[in-house]
Design brief:
It contains 11 helices and 16 strands. With 339 residues, it is of the alpha/beta class. The protein binds 5-S-methyl-1-O-phosphono-5-thio-D-ribulose (MRU). The site of 5-S-methyl-1-O-phosphono-5-thio-D-ribulose has 17 residues, from helix 2 and strand 9. The site of 5-S-methyl-1-O-phosphono-5-thio-D-ribulose (MRU) has 17 residues, from helix 2 and strand 9.
């Protein structure tokens, strides 16, 4: 039976095949829908590092399957855990999923139990996304416009999405009347992936240049900025795709509300604040080229941080599957997530 939660939700980019992991290669979208078969943990690590699979929850899920596959193959697990952990530094879901697998290994879990754990991690993420969709959509007044950033949909998660899940639910409930997505330079997750998902799922949306965001807010067309997260610190400071910080500042200036949507696996209570979050620096070549073609003069240099931190004071609501925290701070975060 199709439920309202299933509408506009058909993409599953991370698929366990019984003895290997199949990933939709996000580097080729929207031009080509090609699948990669990862047959060992090293291939999963490479897929995470090279952004074939990306998005905080999705990389955690892929890593969990990488560990389970290694166990199935009888490979020593300590080096596999270390290799996967080093694949990318900012999204804590990766470390969270690996710690969860490590705990099961320490408790003597066999390959079957580790496969079960990876499946649980994946299933729980989908359920969390659907719950966050309901909770987040309920905050939005009917007829609102929203702006999102990066890709936070089915491609970036087990399915449905975080911020994009709220958008799916908000559109289905007739609360969201207009959807805008920023391009998300340099990798263009918004242009290449979010627009692909939205068009494919039949959700009307308009792409904007990242640099059009303040102008859009000034026009009055959007009432909420809705983004995902790669790591939420204990005081509510939130690391997310580069450009999120400037959206939060702009939103505050224009009286537009700012919502962060992320499962509890993205919350890192061991990190006191955003200053302590490692921000991934990627190859400057990602900035110097577009669509595989060099667009900047030879000899030019670039700086390419791919995440930034929106301070808690600029965030109106953090939506998790455990509940909503309005105007987050250390106390309200501790009330929901402990110490
Ligand atoms: O570098 P990426 O594409 O892995 O970055 C992804 C993001 O920043 C997303 O917005 C994010 O992970 C949040 S929720 C799925």
């Amino acid at each position: 039976m199709t439920t309202s939660a299933d509408t506009h939700d058909s993409i599953r980019a991370v698929q366990w095949q019984g003895d290997h992991l199949r990933l939709l290669d996000q580097r080729l979208l929207p031009g080509e829908e090609r699948w990669i078969d990862c047959r060992d943990a090293a291939q999963v690590t490479q897929a995470i590092r090279d952004l074939a699979v990306r998005g905080a929850p999705a990389i955690g899920i892929a890593a969990a399957w990488g560990v389970a596959m290694a166990a199935q193959q009888g490979v020593p697990l300590e080096p596999v855990l270390a290799q996967l952990r080093a694949a990318r530094p900012t999204a804590v879901n990766l470390m969270w999923a690996l710690d969860r697998m490590k705990k099961r290994i320490a408790a003597g879990a066999d390959a079957g139990a580790l496969l079960h754990e990876a499946q649980l991690i994946q299933d729980e993420d989908l359920a969390a996304n659907r719950r966050m969709g309901e909770l987040g959509a309920a905050l939005i007044a009917p007829g609102s416009g929203v702006l999102t950033h990066c890709n936070t949909g089915s491609l970036a998660t087990a399915g449905y999405g975080t911020a994009l899940g709220v958008i799916r639910a908000g559109v289905a409930a007739n609360r969201i009347a207009r959807v805008y997505a920023g391009e998300t330079r340099p990798w263009q997750q918004g242009a290449r992936l979010t627009m692909w998902e939205l068009v494919r799922e039949g959700i009307p949306a308009r792409l904007i240049a990242d640099s059009a965001a303040a102008h859009l807010m000034k026009s009055g067309a959007v009432q909420w900025v809705i983004v995902g997260a790669d790591r939420i610190a204990a005081n509510g400071d939130t690391a997310n795709k580069i450009g999120t910080y400037q959206l939060a500042i702009s939103a505050k200036y224009h009286g537009v509300k700012f919502m962060v949507v992320a499962p509890s696996s993205t919350v890192d209570m061991a990190t006191a604040n955003g200053e302590e979050i490692e921000i991934e620096l990627r190859d400057p070549a990602e900035l110097l080229s577009s669509g595989g073609r060099r667009v900047v003069v030879e000899g030019a240099q670039a700086w390419n941080p791919v995440f930034d931190v929106a301070p808690a004071e600029l965030i109106d609501a953090i939506v998790t599957e455990r509940g909503v925290i309005e105007r987050p701070d250390t106390l309200s975060m501790q009330a929901l997530f402990g110490h």
